[in-house]
Every structure is written in C-alpha cells, then in structure tokens.
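> forwarded from #structure-qc
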C-alpha cells in the first residue's frame, strides 16, 4: 500500500488506575478504612491505533489504514487483567482470592512505532490520579510532544470520572453483591487523542461527543465504545491547505476541521485571543516561530525537566510556582493566572526590550482587537440551534485569529524588515556586524541576543533561499515604490536625507527620541507623539489621523471558506461498510467538482485533492493519480509530491500498464520518475541546502578570485568589473594580492565614511534646496572657497557648500552642468595652496575651493561623477550614475587605506567613466537619443548581467524573463520593480497575456506556467507538451470562444479551452524545430527554422513557405515572422541574414519585397506598432544590438537605433506608445523607446 501522510488520528489512548488496585481500595472504602484524597499511579489501559479493518482473510491486499500511514509498530508491555469480563457469579471464594495474583501478568499491546507511551500517564494526570467520593466535572487539557528532530505531535486529553462500582460490575464479595447504595467512590479515566496536527478545538469537540456516550455506558462496553470512536475518527480525511474545510457529524455535534492557509502555514484551531485576556499587550511581544521543546503542562514528577540545559517553553500548575522559583536559575516565569512575569534568579527581569517603534505599532494594533464575543452577540437574538451557534462562534474566532496572526506577523516584519539588505545570496552570507552597527543603540542588545538563536538562523536560511512565505509577502507589500527601487540598486546603503532630517542624527545622544521618529515614520500608521507630529508626519500620509485597524498589514484577498460535509459514519469496524463509505465520499466530491465553475480553480483543487486522498486509501490508485494530476491545472502549490511518488512506486504491473494507456497518467508518471532521478543525482553529488555564513574579515592574502568573493560577501559592491578595478587599485606597486591587514583597513574606512556621512545634520533651510531622495555621501573638511567658508557636500545629484556659522546652503553645481574640473592653486601669503576649480555652465565665475591635501581626491571623484552623469544622460540609463557614485566612494576608501604617494594613482584605477569619456567618447547617435526615453537594468541584484529572454506588456505592468525562469514585474508608470518570482528552473521561451488575470509562460522544461496577475502567484501548470514550449498565441476573433494555442519544439501544436484549461485538439507538424505560432483569419501560421506553414485549425497543412532561394543550402534559418492581415502580408527575418522578406499571403512562392538592413548580420524578433514594423537584430561591424524601424506601406527603413551593447533578443509594445527592447547577456538591459 502507498504511504500516506498522517490522518486525523494517530492513536487513542486510555489512561487510568489499575483494576486490582481499585478493587482493593473499594473494599477499604466500604469498610470506612480509606484515607481521604488518595492518589494512585496511572497506567495505560487501552491503545487504539489504525488500521482498524482489513479485507477478508483470503484477500492479498489490506485496506488502506483509514487516512493514516501503514504505521510501523512495536510492542508496549502493560499489566493484563485476566478474566476481566468473565461473569463473577461463578467464582468461588478461592478463585476470587487468587485474582490479585493473576492480575500481575503482562499483556503485549501493539502501538505505532513513533508513539512513546512511557510518560503519557503522568502527562494525562499532571496533578496525579486522585480518587474522589463525589462526581467531578469533566476537564480537558492539551499536550505537545517534541522529538529529537523538532517534529511535534499533539494530544488532547479529557479526564472523566466514573463510579468505581460501575467499574466492578457483577463482582461478589463473601457470596453477596456489593451494595452500590453505600457511599460511592469515583476514579478518573483520561482519554487522550494523539494527532500529528494541532486540531485542538476539533478534537476537544470529538472527546465531548465521546463522553456523552461513555456516561451511561456499562464498563463491559467501555473499551468497545472507545474503539468504535477511534475507528470513526480514522476515517476522517484532513483538508488540504486553502479555503476548503471538512466537517463531520459525531452526534450531538457537527465537528469542523479548518484547513491551513497555505502549504507553509500551521493549522490554527485554538483561540489565539486568550493570551490577550490574560496579559497586557506589551507582554505579548514574542516574534518568530518556536522550534525548541514545548510542554503545555508538566506533571508533578517531571519538574526536574526545568533543569534542562537548553531553551524550552514548559508549563506547570501554579501550586509549584514558589518551588520552581526557588530551585531554578535563569528562568523566565510567566504567571498566567495573574498576567505577570517574574525571573527565577532575581526580582528584576534582564530581558532586552523589543525595538520600541515595532512594539508601539503592535500595541496600537492589539488595542483595536475585538476580543469579547459577547459584544458580537449583543445585537442578535437568542439562538435555538446549537450547531448554528457553534458555527457563528467559529466564524468570529476565525476572523479574530486571522487579525491576531496578521499583527503578530507585522511585528516580526517591522523588527526584521532590513535583514534582506545585509544578505549576499550568491555566497549565502549574512553581514551581522554591519547589520548590528546600523541598528539603534537602544535596540542593539535585543538584536545581539536574537542573532545568536537557532530560530533566527532558520529565518536567515529561508531568506537566503528566497522562500516565498508570509514574511516575504508582507515585507514586499509594506515596501513603498521608492524603498523597493532602492533595494535593487547598487548605490551603497544610505538613509535618505528626508529620513535623516527627522532626527538630524544629533539625536545619537538621545536614542529614545531617534528611535520613535526615524523608525516610526517608516512603519504603517504608527502613531507619533504630539511633539513630533510636525516633523515626522508628511502631508501625504497623516499617520496620526488615520484610523488604526488590526489587519492593515497584509492585504491579501481572503477567499470565502467552503465546508465539505462528510457522509454519515458507517459501522466503522466492518470492511464493506467502510468501502461503501469511501465510495459515498468519492461520489459527493464528484458532485461538488461538477457544481464548481472552472474559474474557481482554487476550490476545485481542494476537492480533487480530497478525492485523491479517498481514492488512495480505498485502493483506487489510478483514479487517485488522475485527481492529483488535475492539481497542476488548478493549484500546483498543494501537489503532494511524496504521496504521488509513493503511489507510483506501489502500482502493480497490471495497473501500470493501464496507466501507460492513459496519456495524462503516463505524463504524470514520467514526470515523477524524472523528479526522482534528479533528486537522486542531487543526493549523489552531495548537494544540500546551504547553511548561513556570517561575514568575517579575511585572515590570509587573497588572489583576485578570493578577493572578488570577499568583497561581494562584505556587501560593498557586487559588480565583478568594479571589483577587478578595486583589486588593481589596492595592488598598485606590489604583488597582485591583497593582504588581510590592508583589506581590514579598507573595509573599516569604508564603513566609517558611511557612518560619518549619516551623522550629517542638515537644517530645514538646507533641505529645502535638495530633493527628498538625495543622500550626502561625502563631506569635506572645513575649507575656504570662493563662495565662503564651509564644507563641500557631495550627493548623487550635486555638489553644495554647507556654510559655517549660521548653517546655510550654497549651490556649487549639478554634475550635468559642469564644464571643467581641474586642480589649481590659490595664493596664500607666500604659499600656493592646492585647490579645486570648477566651471559651471551659465555662470561667469569659476568656483574654487582650497581643499589642500584633499584636492587630488576630490578632483578624481567629481570628474567621475561628472562623467557618470553625462553618460547616464546620453544613454537615458540611471545605472551609470549609480556606478559612478560607487566608483567615487571606493576611490575615497582606497586613498584613506593606502596613505602613500601612490594613493591617488591607485584611486585613478577606479575612474572608469572618466577614462571611458576621455578615451572613447560614448556619443549616442541623434536619432537614438531622440527616440530613447529610459533604460531598466533587471540584473542589478546580480554579479553579472543576464540575458533578457522574453518581454510582455499587460495593462500597467511590464513582465521580464531572465535566465533560469526568473520573472520580474515592473510598474509601467514608474518602471520600478514591484514583484519577482521564479517559474520553474528553466529558461522561458514565450509569454502571453490570456485574460485580465492570466499570463501564460512557455518553458524549456515543456511546461506552460500560469501566473495570476492579481495574486501574483504561479500555482497552475499545463503539462501536456513533451518538449520545450516555444510559442503561444490567442484566438482574436470577437465572438468565438476564448481559445489559446501552444507549440513545442518537436512540432506539436495544442489547442486549449482557456476557461477549463483542457486540450480541445492537438496535432503534429513535420518541421525542423517549431519556433512560434500565430493565429489569423481562421488559420494558424507556424514558424520553424526551415519553413513557415499555414495550417487549418483542424491541423491539416494548407501550404508551406520555404526559405528564399538565396538562403537555401546556407546556415540561415527563419528567426521570426509577423502577420499583417489587413495588408495580406507575411514578413519574415532570418537569424543569419540582414534582410526582411515581405510575402503576399495568397502567393508565397517568392517574396514580393526584400528590405536590406544596413550593417545587420541577423534578426530574431519583430513586432508591429501602428504603421511601423520594429525589427531587433545585431550589427555586422560590431556585436552591438540594433533596432530597425520599417514603414509598412513603403517597405523602407525609417530609423536605425543603437541602444544595446549585445544583440536584441526581445521586443514588445506598450499600448503603441512605447516599444521595449531587451538584450543579450553582455548587456542585459531593457531600453524604452518612444513611438512616433
């Protein structure tokens, strides 16, 4: 049988007092010899674990284990009560007397292998097993078991008191029945349900229903009742992650199992608001997920566990509080009853406080929570249906739990939102020292302690793996466009002047003030003190006036919850009844699937998942695989890979041959096998998920390769070309290696310069003259200038003089206005002092500053900034300015670290743009300069540029595919990055906007991935193709049903129903690598390397267009085609030819026009915009990419654009107003062109 994930029930265990002890004590009680409040040692009395039923003895296949694994089992030895059910009337006095001797024999119980029952009796009775002379109320508590690997199992315990005489029914003493009319004695039993999932409320409801049955039950029926109850629970399937919950009727209650929100989220089936009722909001700040041992209630005999030399969370009864406080050290003691916190070693608690701004935001949110259900009920009438009232309460609790999870997540994001800025993904390094240095002094103790924990290490590992979890989603949603842009630039980390102005950085002496203003302003809706309102709140976001809500952090659209009701339980211990139950469930799920419209794909996925589970457990393996296969088209995120692998491996030969005759199952099985081979290959090569390294300064001399890695890990700069130039600068005049001492000095100066610049205090009168996004990166010493005495400040846009005395602003120059920068000398008495002279466009007098020994350095830096600005303006590419700024700051650090006569010469090695400007003037042709509007660099986060594979424009968004399935989405209004995701691990060949919420992406791995534009998730896949998907097209006729077409390299074309994602037709064409498909006027046009085919929609070939005569026999192949149906023309270009061929659709024997593209060796992409055709290619005389604009009527080249340093690989149009072009890996940029 295939292995399945755990079901609701792992085991049901009954714990209580031994029968022989109870008998003896009852006799003493009848004789009034029993002491009060007698305690007994509890033991395991019963263990019930699946499977509960199997096929008849002549069958070779046991039934699946009722939604639980076929569990490996072991023996558990417990005392056996012999003849416990034999009627007592027939016993003689001797037999009765000898019973105590025989009852000490043992019984071997079979239990699941990973279930440890040794400590369970104590945990079920944490206060001890106490007999009572009166009936007590049933009570419930929860258990959590943690194994060595951190895996958790959960338990819900119900304590139920039964009269001892009912436990001894039919027993005689001295020839007479016991008289039950005498004073009664009661003993507790504990029924514990153990589950792999924390369904605390649901299992508590189940136990409540069980106790209703147990109260009137005879002792002889006690075990059988619990066994049947356990067997029923074993039939319950767990809901898949998402919006579908499962409910079942246990009578008298309808029990609901809520689903997890997504694959990575835990099950939440507990009232999360209870701590808010016990503690003040400031006490509840506990971020991240607990991964260490957790024991809700320790038994009295387990208090020594509190001495464990590790981190833990453990609870015990309040009566042990004084004892624990006296006997332990360094424990934090939380008194839940009184809502206060103590320390076991002192009266004061030496715990670092959570960062104030984040804590204030959390408290403000928590104060808005509606924690009292009575307020929800006050406007409603009295309910008469218990299940309806319970459902109403569940809905209220679910909403409240969601808000609590949201504000807790927001707290964690606010505390750790800057961590990703200090990570190097390529080398998996976290620069912890730099992270700590940039924290507020008041918060550093907190962060130091947190950074040492295993929890934080796991958090870092997820961030370095770019895990797409709730933290990353909220963190991204909380980033503004400006912050999101800055996160992907090469500009070294600096706080914006608009941020610094709120503190002036003079507040280093007042960290409390600095914390609340600087960090607080960046948090959403954080209330400010009234004294700070004017300076901290901008007009665009009046934080103090906005209404606080508890769930403003993660705004993800919540899907309506659906509840699937299971059929009524059958007699659970009869095989054929259980099989009929499974068949009924499959039928009900089939009806639910039929009634769900295709657009509700998420809900369909949950129904298919559940039906797959039921089919698996009832041995319908092929039906189960078909259901799981359906998940690719509905929600691939919940695809149960391990379960499907297990199913495939367990297929007998007969079923395997049946599967091979069903194409969709054959595809699924081959994919599973392929994944298994890839997994084995990875395991064989020893590839494992990398750990996390902390950045450390080098301890030995470094050659170039080691130096590149070290600089990238340090976070100074990632670009390899820049690092190579830095290496040359630091090794001027000696052997080509950098020593550890030199690098330490360089790194220290870099960081100190950064810190000094951040301490600049700019008054409001100065801030009025610079932009909010500007940062001061370098400040000179106080010098005399031609405009007064002061310090020269360098930002990324300008130079200005910060005058002394009354601080003032004097504009020196914006870099684009500079005309001359040179080193000069100014007379002073009999001396000549080195000075820097600047000539600015439009100003009569030059600006001169007596920078003395700093002159040569400032000359280099200003020239580099000037050159960077000039080149950035020419190429409409702001990245050149960012690189120039990095070069200038590196020059400063190099000069400071070398301190020698060669320091300036060494720094000049980094003057990359100034040298480029002097040696080879980067003049941009006039036509190009007029048409080019802007450039985007999708490879900014990477050490080297990556080729742009595909471009797609959808309303308001630009979709960019780069290597390895990485997709980046840019806002088309600001061209800023708003989203990044990975679609498979292979290169994407094509993208298509199918409707308002779907983008299809064809991949080299033969899969079509579907991304939701609204949710920005890729959880659906079309897996029917057998080779790489090369083309996608959409039926454009107005009144036809929406149909999409896809083609793959080996010649297959598939026709898709967009609404159902089903293949309507498919056919195969004979050709050399099918590259693209187009739909026009009732037929399809398919382009391969050797021909273009017009095909009827049925798949039959209409006619074929071959390569032009002059290309036959050469290496030329079709690169791209373009249909102009209104002109009845077909345009084609070849990947190895510099001409465009124009064909008439009705006569394709020869081109009607050939248009030569000057200085072009080949083209691979072509689009129509208005009455123009844009062709992307590569130049003959150089490898620079070119774009040719052709007139569709005159068939002439209108413009030739030079915008890339590598071939043009992709083109797309943005509403016919702009054309966007992407280039190969030596350029890797996207150019935005204006359409005339």
């Amino acid at each position: 049988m295939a292995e399945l994930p755990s079901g609701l029930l792992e085991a049901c265990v009954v714990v209580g007092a031994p029968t022989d002890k109870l008998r003896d004590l009852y006799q003493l009680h009848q004789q009034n010899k029993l002491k009060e409040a007698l305690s007994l040692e509890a033991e395991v009395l019963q263990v019930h674990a699946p499977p509960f039923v199997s096929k008849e003895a002549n069958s070779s296949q046991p039934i699946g284990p009722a939604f639980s694994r076929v569990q490996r089992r072991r023996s558990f030895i417990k005392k056996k009560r012999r003849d416990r059910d034999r009627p007592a009337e027939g016993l003689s006095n001797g037999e009765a007397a000898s019973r105590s001797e025989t009852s000490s024999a043992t019984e071997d119980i079979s239990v699941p292998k990973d279930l440890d029952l040794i400590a369970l009796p104590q945990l079920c009775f944490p206060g001890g097993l106490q007999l009572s002379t009166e009936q007590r109320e049933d009570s419930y508590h929860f258990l959590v078991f943690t194994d060595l690997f951190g895996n958790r199992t959960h338990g819900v315990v119900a304590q139920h008191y039964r009269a001892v005489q009912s436990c001894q029914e039919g027993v005689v003493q001295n020839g007479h029945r016991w008289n039950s009319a005498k004073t009664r004695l009661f003993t507790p039993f504990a029924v514990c349900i153990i589950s792999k999932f924390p369904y605390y409320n649901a299992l508590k409801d189940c136990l409540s229903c069980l106790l209703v049955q147990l109260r009137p039950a005879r002792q002889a029926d006690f075990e059988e009742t619990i066994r049947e109850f356990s067997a029923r629970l074993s039939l319950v399937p767990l809901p898949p992650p998402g919006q579908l919950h499962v409910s079942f009727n246990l009578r008298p209650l309808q029990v609901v199992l809520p689903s997890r929100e997504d694959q990575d989220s835990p099950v939440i089936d507990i009232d999360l608001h209870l701590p808010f009722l016990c503690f003040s909001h400031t006490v509840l700040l506990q971020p991240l997920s607990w991964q260490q041992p957790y024991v809700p209630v320790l038994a009295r005999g387990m208090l020594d566990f509190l001495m464990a030399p590790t981190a833990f969370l453990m609870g015990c009864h309040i009566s042990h509080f004084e004892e624990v406080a006296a006997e332990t050290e360094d424990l934090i003691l939380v008194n839940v009853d009184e809502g206060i916190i103590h320390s076991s070693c002192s009266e004061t608690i030496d715990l670092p406080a959570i960062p104030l701004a984040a804590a204030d935001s959390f408290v403000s949110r928590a104060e808005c929570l509606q924690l009292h259900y009575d307020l929800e009920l006050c406007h409603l009438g009295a309910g008469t249906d218990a299940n309806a009232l319970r459902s109403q309460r569940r809905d209220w609790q679910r909403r409240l739990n969601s808000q609590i999870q949201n504000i807790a997540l927001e707290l964690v994001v606010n505390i750790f939102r800057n961590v990703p800025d200090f990570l190097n993904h390529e080398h998996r390094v976290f620069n912890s020292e730099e992270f700590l240095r940039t924290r507020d002094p008041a918060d550093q103790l907190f962060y130091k302690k947190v950074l040492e924990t295993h929890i934080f290490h796991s958090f870092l590992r997820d961030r370095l793996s770019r895990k797409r979890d709730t933290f990353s989603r909220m963190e991204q949603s909380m980033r503004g466009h400006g912050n999101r842009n800055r996160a992907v630039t090469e500009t070294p980390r600096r706080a914006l002047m608009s941020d610094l102005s709120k503190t002036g950085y003079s507040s280093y002496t007042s960290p409390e003030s600095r914390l609340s203003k600087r960090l607080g302003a960046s948090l959403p809706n954080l209330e400010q003190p009234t004294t700070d309102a004017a300076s901290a709140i901008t007009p665009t976001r009046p934080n103090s006036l906005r209404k606080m809500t508890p769930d403003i952090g993660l705004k993800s659209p919540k899907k309506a919850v659906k509840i699937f009701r299971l059929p009524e339980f059958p007699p659970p211990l009869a095989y054929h009844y259980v099989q009929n139950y499974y068949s009924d469930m499959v039928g009900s799920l089939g009806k639910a699937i039929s009634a769900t419209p295709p657009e509700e794909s998420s809900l369909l996925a949950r129904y298919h998942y559940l039906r797959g589970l039921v089919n698996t457990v009832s041995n319908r393996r092929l039906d189960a695989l078909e259901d799981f296969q359906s998940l690719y088209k509905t929600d691939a995120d919940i695809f149960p890979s391990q379960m499907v692998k297990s199913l495939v491996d367990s297929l007998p030969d007969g079923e395997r041959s049946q599967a091979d005759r069903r194409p969709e199952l054959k595809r699924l099985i081959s994919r599973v096998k392929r994944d298994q081979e890839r997994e084995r290959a990875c395991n064989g090569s020893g590839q494992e998920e990398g750990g996390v390294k902390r950045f450390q300064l080098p301890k030995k001399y470094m050659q170039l390769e080691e130096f590149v890695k070290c600089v990238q890990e340090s976070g100074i700069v990632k670009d390899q070309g820049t690092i190579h130039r830095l290496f040359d600068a630091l090794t001027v005049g000696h052997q080509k290696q950098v020593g550890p001492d030199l690098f330490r000095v360089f790194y220290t100066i870099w960081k100190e310069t950064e810190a000094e610049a951040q301490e600049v205090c700019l008054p409001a009168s100065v801030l009025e003259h610079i932009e909010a996004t500007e940062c001061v990166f370098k400040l000179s010493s106080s010098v005399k200038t031609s405009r007064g005495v002061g310090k020269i400040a360098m930002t990324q846009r300008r130079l200005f003089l910060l005058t002394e005395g009354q601080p003032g602003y004097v504009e020196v120059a914006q870099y684009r206005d500079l005309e001359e920068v040179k080193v000069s000398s100014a007379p002073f008495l009999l001396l000549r002092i080195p000075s820097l002279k600047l000539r600015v466009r439009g100003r009569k007098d030059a600006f001169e500053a007596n920078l003395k020994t700093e002159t040569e350095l400032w000359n280099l830096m200003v020239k580099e900034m000037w050159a960077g600005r000039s080149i950035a303006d020419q190429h409409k590419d702001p990245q050149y300015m960012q690189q120039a700024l990095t070069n200038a700051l590196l020059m400063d650090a190099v000069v400071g670290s070398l301190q020698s006569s060669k320091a300036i010469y060494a720094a000049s090695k980094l003057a990359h743009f100034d040298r480029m400007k002097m040696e080879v003037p980067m003049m941009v042709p006039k036509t190009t300069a007029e048409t080019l509007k802007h450039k985007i660099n999708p490879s900014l986060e990477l050490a080297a540029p990556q080729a742009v594979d595909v471009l797609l424009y959808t309303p308001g968004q630009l979709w960019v595919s780069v290597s390895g399935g990485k997709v980046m989405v840019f806002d088309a209004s600001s061209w800023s990055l708003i989203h990044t995701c990975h679609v498979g691990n292979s290169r994407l060949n094509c993208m298509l906007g199918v409707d308002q919420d779907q983008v299809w992406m064809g991949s080299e791995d033969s899969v079509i991935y579907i991304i939701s534009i609204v949710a920005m998730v890729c959880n659906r896949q079309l897996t029917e193709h057998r080779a790489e998907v090369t083309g996608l097209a959409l039926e454009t006729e107005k009144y036809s049903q929406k149909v999409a077409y896809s083609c793959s390299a080996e010649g297959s074309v598939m026709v898709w129903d967009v609404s159902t994602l089903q293949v309507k037709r498919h056919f195969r064409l004979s050709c050399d690598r099918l590259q693209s498909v187009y739909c026009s006027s009732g037929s399809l046009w398919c382009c391969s390397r050797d021909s273009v085919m017009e095909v009827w929609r049925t798949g039959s070939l209409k006619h074929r267009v071959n390569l032009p005569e002059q290309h036959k026999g050469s290496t030329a192949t079709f690169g791209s085609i373009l249909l102009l149906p209104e002109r009845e023309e077909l345009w084609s270009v070849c990947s190895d030819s510099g001409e465009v061929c124009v064909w008439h659709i009705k006569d394709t024997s020869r081109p009607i026009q050939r248009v030569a593209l000057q200085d072009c060796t080949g083209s691979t992409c072509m689009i129509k915009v208005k009455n123009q055709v844009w062709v992307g290619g590569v130049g003959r005389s150089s490898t620079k990419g070119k774009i040719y604009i052709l007139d569709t009527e005159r068939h002439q080249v209108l413009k030739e654009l030079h915008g890339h340093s590598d071939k043009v690989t992709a083109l797309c149009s943005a509403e016919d107003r702009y054309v966007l072009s992407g280039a190969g890996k030596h350029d890797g940029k996207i150019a935005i062109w204006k359409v005339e």
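QC bot note: Residues 292-348 form one domain. The chain has a mean pLDDT of 82.
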